[in-house]
Amino acid sequence: MNLHEVNIKGFSITHAIPGRVRLKIARVKQNPVLAGEIQKRFSAIRGIHEVEVSSVTGSVLLIFDPKEVVSLSSMGSLLEAFTSLFPEIKLEEIKGWLTSPVFVSSATESAATSALIEAFKERLEKINT
Q: Is the pTM of this model over 0.85?
């Protein structure tokens, strides 16, 4: 999958290699409060080593260890951060990003991540009903 082809309104990946992803998020531009919240939440996730957020450009840079970020707790924290900060994004939309070779290094990790996303999605649906 080419990550640049993933189309989520207001979000784009401008650069991605294993361990490093730069996102452009429209809502972050000119929103220092949201930028600070992204910085705080993503910095607290095990496996993410650096988070740079610019409210001037709307850019979010994540530098992470792909082996650590696919752990159950880290992926759960990552999903929690995405869904709470950006409730307009559906998990299916980010599933392609999180199961790509940028985040996971093997088909087994990709399948495990996919299963975790589905379990998280079911949990959210139960909470919201």
A: no
